[in-house]
Amino acid sequence: MRFLGIDLGTASLKLAIVDEDGREIAFSNAAYAVRTEHPGWAETPVDDWWHALLAAASRLPAAEREAVRAIGFSGQMHGVVLTDGRGRALRPAMLWPDTRARDLLDAWPVPQVNPVAPGMAGPLLRWIALNEPALLDEARWALQPKDWLRTRLGGELGGEIATDPSDACATALAEPSGLWDDALIANLGLPRRWFAQLAPSYAAAGTLSAEAADALGLKAGVVMAVGAGDTPCAALGSGLCRDGDALLTTGTGGQIVVMSHDAPASVAGLHAYRAATDEWYRMAAMQNVGVALEAVRGWLAFDAWPRAYEDAFAAQASARVSFLPYLSGERSPWLNPSARGGWLGLGLSDTRGTLMRAAFEGVAFSLRAGLDAIRSSGATMTTMRLAGGGSIDPRWRQLLADALKVELHAVDCPNAATRGAALLGGLAVGHWHAGDLATLAPSATLVATPRDDAALDERHARFVDLYGRVKDWF
């Protein structure tokens, strides 16, 4: 018996097949482009997603595809696909990096339990209502990306139109529980009929159509789970299932996720969302991790990452050189889209290794700012799971442990969100139950133990002080 996980990401679609014990036995992916026809826009035609799915599926072993008995979904959060009554997209999908609705956030009451960003479905749909008003009457559904893909797999009529609390609560159109906020939707001038009914992430929501099954090499009638957002799916796939379990992911951005049995208290700069199970999670979301380090590597003309790591960690850390990594603004905890970055304290004797080392420390300190906000909300953490392609080098891992003051345990699961989606498929058909999730957690290896480092603590204090001094310059 096999279960297929589909992770519809921003720049690529990933597929993983897991066996009856939750072990990944096959994986494939296919990339596509995010289109930016105008500055600040971020769109993808849904046909690009469909063709990527077909390409990725064709690379999976045929025998494993034949054995799939359920499908689960993970998807990029916040964006939106506007469709007609048959589930056909009326325009390209609008995605979370899109900032065209930046000046429309005044319609949301302040304060909000969760921060509202321009690329969330609510602001994007408000932009459509104001700039593409003909779609108000033509559209039937405003779907999250993974929900559009699931309905497409169910057939032209869309199968069962549904979404889950983990995606709904991140639209800026719902309560933290995921229930749609009817009053807010009406105040924004959006049709209430656009928004799908809610169902648990692990609930069954239709079956695979014969047409889609033939295209993918699967059996028709395979049960499909509703699915969840990529962050809660990654948490599930990484083994977070108990109150207080924590995960650090380092990719283009960085996220710190902490599971909570009860609804977390509201804290400025943090998110409190529903998990893929019936739990909750606190989240600090930092925009500038891999994206900032990659920019620095290019500026300093390191031709490859191994040399950048070597020079950075061979260099003596400077007591006076600090790097603010906020090259694209920042979310947690500052909520400052205008924040910008750079080095401060440079001298003629500083080398590119010094600058690269300061960049690594600055990113680590920005993650610490998000973690400190979570700690201030009452969560206590001394151990975190670690995932993400940007956290492989052991020297970088040690710096993260020292700056964050936590033990880091690398998760043996390279495709956590895709695996989490597959687990939801198994839950939907009753192969697993909620009580089984702890036993399905992947192994995690201790890779870094925090060390007392007074000099690093002083550089962290300098970093926080400098941000406070320059945050209003831009």
TrEMBL record:
Family matches, as InterPro entries: ATPase_NBD, Carb_kinase_FGGY, FGGY_C, FGGY_Carb_Kinase, FGGY_N
Pfam family for this entry, one: FGGY_C
Domain Carbohydrate kinase FGGY C-terminal: 248-428
Stretch forming the signal peptide: none
Keywords, sorted A to Z: Kinase, Transferase
CDD domains for this protein: ASKHA_NBD_FGGY_EcXK-like
GO BP of this protein: carbohydrate metabolic process
Homology family: Belongs to the FGGY kinase family.
UniProt protein name: Xylulokinase
Species this chain originates from: Caballeronia telluris
Phylogenetic classification of the source organism: Bacteria, Pseudomonadati, Pseudomonadota, Betaproteobacteria, Burkholderiales
